[in-house]
């Protein structure tokens, strides 16, 4: 799935969901090292667990963050 982010430095998130597990997360743009870390940490994680861990994280004074945008993308993809 491809998700266009809003309000953050990254422009796009690509990911797959297989058997309700998060797979192959890749961000376009943003803080490369941090986003690679997030991608690796949630690889293979249950979608609901991933959402609960990253939803609502803010970046500085922004009301969202790249992890929060990923949570939104996962929710959209699963209809939650």
UniProtKB/TrEMBL annotation:
It catalyses: a 2'-deoxyribonucleoside 5'-diphosphate + [thioredoxin]-disulfide + H2O = a ribonucleoside 5'-diphosphate + [thioredoxin]-dithiol. The keyword Nucleotide-binding applies. Pfam families: TSCPD. Its EC number is 1.17.4.1. Keywords: DNA synthesis, Nucleotide-binding. It comes from the Bacteria. GO terms for molecular function: nucleotide binding; ribonucleoside-diphosphate reductase activity, thioredoxin disulfide as acceptor. Coiled coil: none annotated. It is an enzyme of class 1 (oxidoreductase). Residues 2-77 form the TSCPD domain. The keyword Transport does not apply. One of its GO terms (biological process) is DNA biosynthetic process. Belongs to the ribonucleoside diphosphate reductase class-2 family. This is ribonucleoside-diphosphate reductase. It comes from Faecalicatena orotica.
């Amino acid at each position: 799935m491809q998700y266009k982010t809003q309000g953050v430095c990254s422009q796009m998130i690509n990911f797959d969901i297989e058997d309700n597990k998060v797979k192959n997360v890749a961000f376009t743009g943003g803080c490369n090292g941090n986003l690679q870390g997030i991608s690796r940490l949630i690889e293979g994680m249950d979608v609901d667990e991933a959402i609960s861990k990253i939803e609502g994280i803010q970046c500085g004074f922004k009301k969202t963050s790249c992890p929060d945008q990923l949570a939104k993308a996962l929710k959209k993809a699963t209809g939650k």
